[in-house]
Fold this protein.
Amino acid sequence: MRNDDDYMRVALALARQAELSGEVPVGAVVVKDGVIIGRGSNAPISRHDPSAHAELLALREAAQHLGNYRLIGCELFVTLEPCVMCVGAMFHARIARVVFGANDLKTGACGSVLNLFAEQRLNHHAETTAGVLAKECGQVLSDFFAARRAQQQKNDSVK
């Protein structure tokens, strides 16, 4: 039987795939009854689509798998705390539980900047679990942005 760490490791592998494509390394999986039914890697740059976040791609695949946009009883595992857009999609899908790795202190909508799942005026509330493999999830992002800054400095010094 898989546990939260196992699903997050799958999401981390998807994040690394996104990084290889030049995308911000975020990965997500949707799980129903212990089976992964949706996977997503960040792809807004390559798809020319601002909504192509890992979570939304995983939700879309899961909805296709189930033949229903309502993902009742499903859990979503993602390496980075979801943003407002992604939480909104999770509301509409009726995700039961959201598990994330690293906090997003700039756009996180599960507690870091806002906590939409705790907002009583909204009609859906999912259970949230933060910090699963947080160090590993955060390191993938830190390494990515450090490499980007180093490349930018290199480019600037050549000019």
